[in-house]
Automatic annotation (TrEMBL):
Protein name, per record: non-specific serine/threonine protein kinase
SMART domains per UniProt: LRR_TYP
Membrane topology according to the record: Single-pass type I membrane protein
PANTHER family xrefs: SOMATIC EMBRYOGENESIS RECEPTOR KINASE 1
GO cellular component terms, semicolon-separated: plasma membrane
Domain of life: Eukaryota
Principal cellular location given in the protein's record: membrane
Subcellular location: Cell membrane
Organism: Vitis vinifera (Grape)
Gene3D superfamilies, sorted: Ribonuclease Inhibitor
Higher taxonomy: Eukaryota, Viridiplantae, Streptophyta, Embryophyta, Tracheophyta
Length: 214
């Protein structure tokens, strides 16, 4: 694991405000599996970093820094094929959302991509407090390892997809403060592990299945 410590990395190029951080990973960077840089006061864009040298990366944690700009394509599943935990929440990232997770409290726009269904190993998907629009894709139901799904406080529209009933390991489902409409799918009643469900501040009709209410 690489943490925010001087003995494990060197911070370079702090003179330019547009390129405030570049760090050098250990020479055997291909063996790094966890990169933990949360709350480090990092500034700059993710385009400054070369993640292609980290083929075995499982966790990338840049939570609560001062990152801005768009999320580059190389953070997606294309190059970091082993990645199962990406945390970029509480930054100032903008632009469309890539298929990743823990991107809450940014300024991401556009729809949730259908390719989200490719991330079969995800256990958490945090996209809350962004500016996402469009419908929740049916492919969300392919993420059968999910425990927590938080899409709250966006501008998502349309119905809740029935495929959400496939997420049998789900314990938390937050869809409140969106523009969702239509009936609450009965398939939500299949989520027998669910213990925290919030759907308020939408335009949903029908009632929550009794199996969830009890």
């Amino acid at each position: 694991m690489v943490r925010c410590q001087h003995q494990l990395m060197e911070i370079l190029d702090v003179k330019s405000i547009n390129k405030c951080f570049v760090f050098i990973l250990p020479s055997r960077s291909g063996s790094v599996s966890n990169l933990d840089l949360d709350n480090c006061g990092l500034r700059g864009t993710l385009h400054n970093l070369n993640f292609s040298s980290l083929p075995n990366l499982l966790t990338l944690n840049l939570y609560n820094n001062s990152l801005y700009g768009t999320i580059p394509i190389n953070i997606e599943i294309g190059l970091l094929t082993s990645l199962n935990d990406l945390q970029l929440a509480i930054n100032s990232l903008t632009g469309p959302i890539p298929p990743s997770h823990r991107l809450g409290t940014n300024n991401l726009t556009g729809p949730i991509p259908h390719s989200i269904g490719n991330l079969r190993n995800l256990t958490t998907l945090y996209l809350y407090e962004n500016k996402l629009s469009g419908s929740i894709p049916q492919e969300i139901g392919l993420l059968t390892s999910l425990n927590d799904l938080e899409l709250r406080t966006n501008s998502l529209t349309g119905p809740i997809p029935p495929s959400i009933g496939n997420l049998r390991n789900l314990t938390t489902l937050y869809l409140f403060e969106n523009e969702l409409s239509g009936s609450i799918p009965q398939e939500i009643g299949l989520l027998t592990s669910l213990n925290d469900l919030k759907l308020e501040t939408n335009s949903l009709t029908s009632s929550i299945p009794p199996s969830i209410e009890t």
